[in-house]
């Protein structure tokens, strides 16, 4: 059990794998457990989950800086971006970063669009040749940050900007409201169950999207049987029916994360990451994710009982709310 930021985490051992799966605080676990118990006792009914869905949607909207009416529900980043990719003209030129997470690139490539990879640092200046720029705010493989200010200043007025904030929301304060798409899965730094994902869409993009995957939830309770087509007038018309239990957890996790001092959360994670970098003679960075290419690093960490991930040939570690200086010391000892 660990105490941090006014709550507790049932973390046993050293867990540095938040970039893969976030560890929820105890109140999130309790909320989901209570909902599962009610389901098992036949005490659940579909309408009772509407409040949790609305709460999580509104909280996500505030993280991004948009209205809840601009937020689409989904279950995974790739599915939500598939909606975008399928609504674009054939042959759309999509610019992305090298080694970008494939849930960002595959939906566009699978739809037959031309996807062009460039080094992350070169991406802003190359946007002039693209119809769409699709990139992660923080790279999954190594924690590198895209230069949002440069991207915003360089991108043309007709180019759509798609940002995957899965590896940034929850620890990196940033203005994302200007992008045409901000999508994120909730099960990493937002400390929610897998199955809750959201996508904020700009008005100009929403006009172009085709609600080809919308079901009854996109129309609401009055639209569950029969034609004609009748969908919500805002971005909810693109909703997928939510994974209810996942949104129960998200409705607890996201508002709690919102209530924290965003600067303190950022400084905590990045501070620990930089303490590790300093101990390994690496330059400081502005990321809570550290990719270590030291020989045998992944095996040494595993042997020491430290949970991390192997990504792109590097041991990937992420520092979030429950982590401490002692965790950094343990990594340094394991790699000594």
Architecture overview:
- Residues 47-282 form the Aminotransferase class V domain.
- GO terms for molecular function: transaminase activity.
- The protein has 336 residues and is of the alpha/beta class.
- The protein has two domains: 2-26 and 261-335, Aspartate Aminotransferase, domain 1 (Alpha-Beta Complex), CATH 3.90.1150.10; 45-258, Aspartate Aminotransferase, domain 2.
- The protein has helices spanning 26-40, 50-64, 77-86, 102-110, 123-126, 148-154, 203-206, 244-259, 262-279, 297-303, 325-335; strands spanning 2-4, 7-9, 14-15, 71-74, 93-97, 114-118, 132-136, 160-164, 181-185, 197-201, 289-292, 306-307, 309-311, 314-318.
- The strands form four sheets. The protein has a seven-stranded mixed beta sheet, with helices on both faces. The protein has a three-stranded antiparallel beta sheet with strand order 11-14-13, with helices on one face. A two-stranded antiparallel ribbon has the order 1-2.
- Strand 7 (132-136), helix 6 (148-154) and strand 8 (160-164) form a beta-alpha-beta unit.
- The two termini are 27 Å apart.
- 47% of the residues are buried.
């Amino acid at each position: 059990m660990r105490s941090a930021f006014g709550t507790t985490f049932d973390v046993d051992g050293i867990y540095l794998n938040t970039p893969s799966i976030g560890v929820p605080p105890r109140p999130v676990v309790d909320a989901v457990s209570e909902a599962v118990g009610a389901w098992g006792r036949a005490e659940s009914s579909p309408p009772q989950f509407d409040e949790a869905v609305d709460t999580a949607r509104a909280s996500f909207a505030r993280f991004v800086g948009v209205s809840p009416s601009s937020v689409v529900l989904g279950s995974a980043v790739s599915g939500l971006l598939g909606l975008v990719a399928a609504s674009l003209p054939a042959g759309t030129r999509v610019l992305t970063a090298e080694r970008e997470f494939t849930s960002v690139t595959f939906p566009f490539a699978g739809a037959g669009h031309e996807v062009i990879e460039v080094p992350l640092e070169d991406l802003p200046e190359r946007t002039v040749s693209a119809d769409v720029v699709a990139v992660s705010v923080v790279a999954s493989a190594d924690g590198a940050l895209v230069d949002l200010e440069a991207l915003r200043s360089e991108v043309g007025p007709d180019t759509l900007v798609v940002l995957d904030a899965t590896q940034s929301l929850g620890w990196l304060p940033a203005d994302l409201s200007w992008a045409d798409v901000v999508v994120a899965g909730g099960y990493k730094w937002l400390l929610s169950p897998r199955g809750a994902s959201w996508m904020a869409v700009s008005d100009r993009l929403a006009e172009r999207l085709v609600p080809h995957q919308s079901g009854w939830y996109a129309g609401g309770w009055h639209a569950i049987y029969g034609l004609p087509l009748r969908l919500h007038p805002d971005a909810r018309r693109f909703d997928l029916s939510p994974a209810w239990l996942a949104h129960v957890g998200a409705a607890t996790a996201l508002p709690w994360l919102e209530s924290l001092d965003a600067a303190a959360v950022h400084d905590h994670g990045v501070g620990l990451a930089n303490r590790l970098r300093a101990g390994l003679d690496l330059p400081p960075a502005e990321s809570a994710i550290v990719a270590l290419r030291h020989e045998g690093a992944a095996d040494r960490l595993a042997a020491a009982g430290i949970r991390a991930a192997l990504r792109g040939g590097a041991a990937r570690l992420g520092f979030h709310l429950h982590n401490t200086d002692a965790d950094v010391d343990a990594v340094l000892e394991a790699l000594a």
